[in-house]
Amino acid sequence: MRKLWIVVIAGAVLFSGCAKKAEDISAAYVSPMRYSSYSCEQLENEMDRLSHHISEVADAQNKAHKRDVAATTVGMLVFWPALFFLASGDKAEELSRLKGEYEALMEAGNRKNCAFYTRLKEAEHAGD
Predict the structure, then answer these.
(1) Distance between CA 15 and CA 81 in Å, rounded?
(2) pTM of the model
(3) CB of 93 closer than 8 Å to CB of 101
(4) Which of 42, 59, 75, 114 could be 83's S-S partner, Cβ–Cβ 3.0 to 4.6 Å?
(5) How far apart are CA 60 and CA 62, in angstroms?
(6) What total number of domains does the chain contain?
(7) Among residues 127, 103, 128, 96, which one has the least CA distance to residue 117?
């Protein structure tokens, strides 16, 4: 019986490729030069579109995280083959890229002194 638990724990460690929570995923670098030809209005419209997409992908990522936590629990307590299903539906790479694009849009807005950038920064500081 002891050997079984050792195998289960070792398997959990080996397969601990759990999907991360969305907020734990950092932004990939995207050059703001990509948006240098955009007007302030275009930058703001792209940020709106992108923020909705980020929200959708973050929701999917958080669902994948919850599934992985459940699979790990079941795998460790009941059925170790459940550990093979970890990180299914992981959107970490896509979310990282999208967050990077959002940061690049913010930087482009900053460089162009766009009004939306100032509003967002003021709102950010008001929340502190």
Answers:
(1) 10
(2) 0.71
(3) no
(4) 75
(5) 5
(6) 1
(7) 103
In a domain, 122, yes or no: yes
Quickly tell me which residue has 């990180």 as its tokens.
87
Tokens coding 82:
């459940």
Token pair of 35 as six digits: 């948006």
User: Tell me: the pLDDT tens digits for 33-43?
Assistant: 999 999 999 99
Domain membership flag for residue 74: yes
Q: What is the pLDDT of residues 56-73, one digit of tens each?
A: 999 999 988 887 776 666
DSSP code for 25: P
Name the residue with tokens 């050792």. 6
Q: 21: phi > 0 → left, psi -120 to 50 → alpha, else beta; which?
A: beta
Q: Is residue 22 part of a domain?
A: no
Instruction: Give the closest residue to 24 by CA, choosing from 91, 120, 72.
Output: 91
Whether the pLDDT of residue 48 is over 90: the answer is: yes
What pLDDT shows up at residue 124? 81
Flag whether 6 is in a domain.
Answer: no
